[in-house]
Amino acid sequence: MNTKKTSQAVASKAAKNLKDQNSSKIQKSLAASAMAQSGTSKQTGKEIEAQASKVLQSEKYSEKTKELAASVLSQSNKGR
Q1: Residue 72 in contact with residue 49, Cβ under 8 Å?
Q2: For residue 2, what pLDDT is reported?
Q3: Distance CA 80, CA 76 (A)
Q4: What is the pLDDT of residues 46-67, one digit of tens each?
């Protein structure tokens, strides 16, 4: 089990991302996952984990998107 939680700084960025009309669908998805793990022991689900992994491996995503992806992956189930 992974006990990491979204930091306050990342949670703040994620909240702003969710409110931003210009955020992409993937950014909002990653932000929602990061927010769900803020202050809880919830872990990243398999599907969002796979999306986050693809984001980090691709050059087409912004640093903002990659930061959210990294946070989400750091909270994934280490057994997978």
Answers
A1: yes
A2: 57
A3: 8
A4: 899 999 999 999 999 999 999 9
> How many angstroms separate the CA atoms of 42 and 67, rounded?
19
Burial tier of 15 (Cβ tally within 10 Å: 0-12, 13-18, 19+): middle
Distance CA 54, CA 7 (A): 22
- The pair of structure tokens assigned to 15 is 């909240």
Confidence at 1, pLDDT banded by 50, 70, 90: low
Measure the CA–CA gap between 18 and 13, rounded to whole angstroms: 9
Which SS3 state, helix, strand or coil, does residue 22 take?
A: coil
How far is 31 from 64, CA to CA, in rounded Å? 10
Question: Which residues, 6 or more positions from 42, have their beta carbon under 8 angstroms from its beta carbon?
Answer: 36, 75
Q: What is the pLDDT of residues 3-12, one digit of tens each?
A: 677 888 888 9
**Spatial separation of the C-alpha atoms in residues 15 and 23, rounded to whole Å:** 11
